[in-house]
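Service request form, structural biology core

Requester: graduate student, group of Dr. S.
Request type: structure prediction, single chain
Budget code: on file
Notes: please return the result as structure tokens.

Sequence provided:
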Amino acid sequence: MYDKLFPTSLVGSYPQPDWLIDRAKLRSKGPPRVRDLSLWKVAEADLAEAQDAATRLAVLDQEEVGLDIITDGEVRRESYSNHFATSLDGLDLDNPGTKTGRSGRPMVVPRVVGPIQRREQVMAREAAFLRRCTKRLTKMTLPGPFTMAMQALNEHYPDEEALALAYADVLRDEIADIFASGIDIVQLDEPYMQAEPESARLFAIKAINKALEGAAGRTVVHMCFGYAYIMDQTKPQGYSFLRELDDCAADELSIEVSQPRLDLSLIVGMKKGFLIGALDLGRDTAETPEEVRDTLVAAASVIPAANIVAAPDCGMKYLTQELSQAKLAALVEGAAMARSMFS
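Core staff response, request fulfilled:
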């Protein structure tokens, strides 16, 4: 699919403008699992138009810095997951529940009180909007079925596996609509497989494969240890659930490498393509292009260079735009340096 080695991409999110989101409040609350309109600085009546404008700016920033694969920056979202997860029927959002999050703190989550269903297309308009904004390859992201099941209080289905499979059904339809809008790549974000590996081994692959049935384009599963501003430097150097994903239907896996200093022997022999995290988002300075090059070359020593996409560790939502641009410029230059070594 890619016409050069080490193409560059966001994982998904890009910093939202200060005129759109209350960034101090966003950081203080942690990623919301239910809706939180108090985070937006724009009145609800004008919010969609403002988010369209912010999306255009995010696309322009990505193009100007030289990324090969463009996302919408997830600028319409309060978190990576709640935008889609709270759009579904079968939830009581007015009377939410509480679960322990992956950080060990309680989180307010949707209560599942009936069958999970899509009442309408959720992101087809957003996907079509992104497609109109750029001529480059495009990617849209969705929360994965396992993670959504872990981020909800189940009061309807017999167990969490049944709930995850119900989420997979609606995701399959949503993914079809996104590809029909002209998007090239769809990514499922599944951080809770790392947080809940025992449950993941029981049914995560089954749910992901059901969600990706019939996918008309390239697909990715993103696995991370949590946002850098939350996790600080406490990330493990290995994944508790990763090699199992060689059996999933996705074409590529997106992993953190830089901040956790991941032991890359973990992916030796895996068949998938990989988004290699070459930007440490817990670091408040930009990487040098040489550091990015070295990360990519190290990855290419254990898997084929043709299987590597250069990316940040995770979403850049909590960084400043200035720092994000500096880091992405290093990513683009470092990928070009690595590319020259393999040409």
